[in-house]
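Consortium newsletter contribution from the modelling node. Members have asked for a concrete example of what our holo predictions look like. Here is one, prepared for the thiamine diphosphate complex that several groups have been discussing at recent meetings.
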Amino acid sequence: MSAIQAIRGDQPDQRTAEATLAHQCLYYMLLMRELEDRIERKLYRQGKIVGGVYVGRGQEAIPVGTGLLAGPDDVLLPSHRDLAVYLIRGISPGRILAQYMGRMGGLTRGRDGNMHMGDMKHGLVAIISALAATVPVAAGVAMALRYQGKNGVAFSYFGDGATSRGDWHEGVNFATVQKLPVVFICNNNQYAYSTPLGLQMACAHVADRGPAYNMPAEIVDGNDVLAVYQAGQRAVEHARAGKGPYLIECKTFRMTGHSAHDAAHYVPKGLFEEWGKLDPIVRLKARMISESWADREELEERHAAIRKEVDDAQAWAEASPLPDPATLLDDVYENQ
Ligand SMILES: Cc1ncc(C[n+]2csc(CCOP(=O)(O)OP(=O)(O)O)c2C)c(N)n1
Ligand SMILES: [Mg+2]
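And here is the predicted structure:
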């Protein structure tokens, strides 16, 4: 039985719903961390990754706490630090590693070398590199869901910096005017590349932007996965009930440079120390032990199983072939 089968309750389970949720959150946060560590700290340094690497270290609670709320009709538009969203929607770790290594087994079949990937079969819209460009797309997705008579919600993910882009404001404005079912999820990690928050926006909180659009907006501790989940529940319920969009600002911190090539010398060291103490995985584990939802040994076993899952995924991805150059134009034009 795999770790995920175990925590999904495929084995007789006496746990409470809250404990089961905590185990599920821990599984996806650990899997995201392990996969990204493998990508950034091993494969990238070995020269096996085709493109740049952007990770969500320290921010795992945000895609996990919200992604777990998505139902089959919902559509998710993750940003570049939301890897867990793909895992939750059923994309295997092997396919993700193959994607980063430019292999046929990846979601873009070797056409892209990092995270510009999606799969509508799983309700995942591919990341658009231009910041905030997915926000009007999220509004469009929500409108399409409404036209189709589905009760789906669009989950729109972005960073603090993206909220200063024109596309963000147009997308949010359209969604609020049309009362579209969108949940806007901001990871406010205090930096947009090397620009600290105070140099790119004049209000103190991203949530302060909500009232300008008559949109409910709440601030949540983005390093507390259960708190993110609860805020997400309020947001999804609101959107699904036809009341329009809802903004969640998750306060967090980027525990790396902007990308693997960036040593982040511009970030005061003290901030890494301060936020390191608030690591969402460490905090969830401590909570699980204090609530008797798990003991240390069980958590260790889970972690070991996840490392093995990533080892197997890497072997699978490395066995996947690179694309045949003769197929270069496949899927580019409808008719060649
Ligand atoms: C329009 C645009 N400008 C610049 C970039 C380059 N770029 C990619 S991510 C990024 C920082 C984004 O900051 P934020 O929105 O806070 O997200 P974070 O990376 O912190 O998660 C920049 C400047 C881009 N992709 N698109
Ligand atoms: Mg940011």
